[in-house]
Design a protein that fits this description.
Rossmann fold, alpha/beta, about 625 residues, 21 strands, seven-stranded parallel beta sheet, about 45% helix
Length: about 625
């Protein structure tokens, strides 16, 4: 049996564990139920991956995020560790095959959503597996008091019944005392060992500024930067626009969002990590599996939707332990936009019932069926077809996802791209032979300049409007043109997919979630208000505010944030006066050089030297031939 340290070195290439990791791993290896409360970047995944590698058998990992499951599986596979994830869209036959592979193959990790865990077929297979550990990621989701409550998480204890001898490790980055106690109760943990690391970051300076010219402020921060930075924005369009603006200012920047092809994402991530690009402008999609130590700035150009997300994103700065800054910039109108985007469009129970029926009808789901079927769609087209408000529909889809009724894969805002590959004369000849080529092609030529030189992002719905043709006809025409090598086409007809997690029962599907929906909406209101309070509070240290939000009772100010720095600045005139009085009192007794003065004073050296210069300028003191100060 290999030791945890040996496995850490062999598979992950690290020589030492981070704080608390080794203690947590030892607790799991001793067969104890364990809770790991570690901040973002604290290395939570290793706390269950390494003990699972030490022990014989398979580790079952419960996670609410498909993207995170896929990311961790890919990471483990890249290290030669066998892992799989049972995500949505699997047929019954494919699911059987996957479960057989996990049961009889050399797999060490099986990732499941809490909804998938409820399938009888999955439970039957799990009962026969040699399970060495149950890992519950984002464990706070099981508590109705948590910041991301998911009712489906409350069904996880069925796994404990199927595998009564396997220890459970619950992992989370955020949990108050109330959430912690609720999590222990809901997961039915037996006298768990609790490991909690303070979320305080002594090397990270939180800064909040009301700023009308954000671009200039960001440029001033990034201009002298020799390491890496992240600039977070709220939408994909803004990610592209901000990246272009920074490039125009001479900043080496690129952008990253969920709509980019996987290959492009990886290329840009590699360029950023390898310092070929200094600044990544990104949406919240930039975060999963991001572990780059030398990030000096994390800048939020717009207000985050919650302090939970802000704390995680800001925490990506300074992971190497060196000084770093988390800067939040906002304008007065940003506060109104935040409220409008996240509070004014919160869906009610009736809104969700209507949206759920609409989805079922749109995808032709028969009553009593549809469980674990996957369907691709365009959000804009769905909203246009049924005259639904886009933002409220988007929030409603997220709520249905959080309740475990659907599983939503989001790639909103993906745009198709096209470039003409043949000379204009050859293209005109093709237009003469095919009237549909002519209508679509000439519409594109009128709408998009430079379409011969570079791939152009196009809006299919807008092209349809301009040409007077149906979208389906335009898509078919473009595909035909691509087959004839007239154009290079990157086509996205859909920008999201839904997996239905429960059979269709219309109102009966949602009625049990009445209280949960109210909790979700109330929680979102509290989260938005907490963000607004955070930026408005100029009296309390920003780190103290964040730590109190996450349940740490501390009064120790960081001394580095914008609030603390402003306090110090306001106190400087009084402190300068006190230093001057002390210096003059000492020099009235005997002349002293700067070293003797510093030995007799308790103030910072820089402050003392600054006051000495001021006293010299005002001729209240003088220097003698041996560089001693004396009173005039």
């Amino acid at each position: 049996m290999k030791s945890p340290l040996h496995i850490l070195q062999e598979y992950w290439g690290f020589n030492n564990f981070r704080p608390l990791q080794e203690d947590i791993i030892q607790s799991v290896l001793e067969g104890r139920d364990t809770i790991a409360l570690l901040p973002t970047g604290g290395g939570k995944s290793l706390c269950f991956q390494i003990p699972a590698m030490v022990m014989e058998g398979l580790c079952i990992v419960i996670s609410p995020l498909v993207a995170l499951m896929n990311d961790q599986v890919a990471s483990l596979e890249s290290k030669g560790i066998k892992a799989m994830a049972l995500t949505g869209g699997l047929s019954s036959e494919a699911l059987t095959t996957q479960l057989d592979n996990a049961l009889y193959g050399p797999y060490k990790f099986l990732y499941l959503s809490p909804e998938r865990l409820q399938q009888e077929q999955v439970q039957w297979a799990l009962k026969k597996m040699n399970v060495n550990l149950i890992a519950v990621d984002e464990a706070h989701c099981i508590s109705q008091w948590g910041n991301d409550f998911r009712p489906s998480y409350q069904k996880i204890p069925v796994l404990k019944a199927l595998q009564p001898y396997a220890p459970t490790i619950a992992l989370t980055a955020t949990a108050t005392e109330e959430v912690l106690l609720d999590t222990i109760s809901e997961l039915k943990l037996e006298q768990p060992q609790i490991f909690k690391k303070s979320f305080a970051r002594t090397n990270l300076s939180y800064q909040v500024y009301q700023q009308s010219d954000k671009l200039h402020r960001i440029f001033q921060m990034l201009k002298p930067l020799k390491e890496s930075a992240v600039v977070y924005v709220r939408s994909r369009n803004q990610a592209e626009q901000w990246s272009q603006r920074l490039q125009q200012q001479g900043i080496s920047a690129t952008f990253y969002h969920g709509g980019l092809p996987p290959k492009v994402k990886q290329e840009r991530l590699d360029a950023w990590k390898q310092y070929r690009v200094s600044t990544m402008v990104a949406t919240t999609a930039f975060g999963m599996g991001i572990d780059h130590p030398n990030v000096r700035y994390v800048i939020h150009a717009q207000l985050p939707e919650s302090l939970e997300s802000y704390f995680q994103e800001a925490g990506r700065a300074g992971r190497d332990g060196k000084d770093a800054e988390a800067v939040l910039l906002y304008e007065a109108q940003d506060q109104q936009l935040l409220t409008k985007q996240f509070l004014d469009t919160l869906p009610t129970l009736q809104d969700l019932k209507k949206l759920y029926r609409t989805l079922c009808n749109y995808f032709q789901i028969p009553y009593g069926e549809g469980e674990f079927t996957e369907h691709s769609f365009s959000l804009n087209k769905l909203c246009q077809t049924y005259q639904l408000p886009i933002q409220q529909t988007y929030n409603g889809l997220n709520t249905l996802d959080r309740l475990g009724i659907i599983q939503l894969s989001k790639q909103f805002g993906r745009k198709s791209k096209i470039q003409f590959l043949v000379p204009s004369q050859s293209l005109l000849m093709a237009f003469e032979k095919n009237p549909s080529f002519s209508v679509v092609g000439k519409t594109l030529l009128r709408m998009y300049g430079g379409i011969f030189d570079n791939p152009n992002t196009i809006d299919l719905e807008w092209v349809a409007h301009k040409s007077g043709l149906a979208s389906d006809l335009i898509v078919g025409t473009l595909k035909e043109m691509a087959q004839q090598d007239l154009v290079d086409l990157q086509l996205f007809e859909t920008d999201a997919s839904i997996t239905f997690m429960v059979p269709r029962e219309d109102d009966r599907t949602l009625n049990p979630f009445r209280e949960a929906i109210e909790l979700v909406n109330n929680r979102k209101e509290r989260q938005v208000k907490a963000v607004l309070t955070y930026i408005a509070n100029t009296k309390v240290c920003l780190q103290v505010q964040l730590l109190r939000y996450f349940g740490e009772t501390t009064t120790q100010e960081c001394g580095r944030c914008s609030v603390c720095l402003e306090k110090r600045k306001s106190q400087q005139p009084l402190e300068t006066q006190v230093i001057a009085q002390k210096i003059l009192a000492l020099l009235q007794e005997t002349p002293m050089d700067s070293r003797n003065l510093l030995e007799n004073l308790t103030f910072a050296e820089a402050d003392v030297l600054k006051v000495l210069r001021a006293l010299l300028d005002r001729k209240l003191i003088q220097l003698n031939a041996v560089n001693q100060y004396y009173c005039s």
